[in-house]
Amino acid sequence: MLTFQECTLLKLEKTFALQQVRNHSVLQDWLSATADISKRERGNLLDLRELLIDNVDDWNEQELAL
Questions:
Q1: The pTM is what?
Q2: Sequence-separated (6 or more) residues with CB below 8 Å from residue 36
Q3: Which of 12, 36, 45, 48 has the lowest CB atom count within 10 Å?
Q4: Which residues contact 46 (CB under 8 A, 6 or more apart)?
């Protein structure tokens, strides 16, 4: 069993065959669901999604907690 210290991103990617994908059917279904949000809010959410996808490997837990 791995300790938390041994759980590097590379180790987790290899152990669980993780892959980063830009599009996924489940995510697309969720994003396509109807909700009472404005066009501006939807645009902001899509912008934030792209920002997350592009920078997720560079952010740490402390930064995301703020």
A1: 0.42
A2: none
A3: 36
A4: none
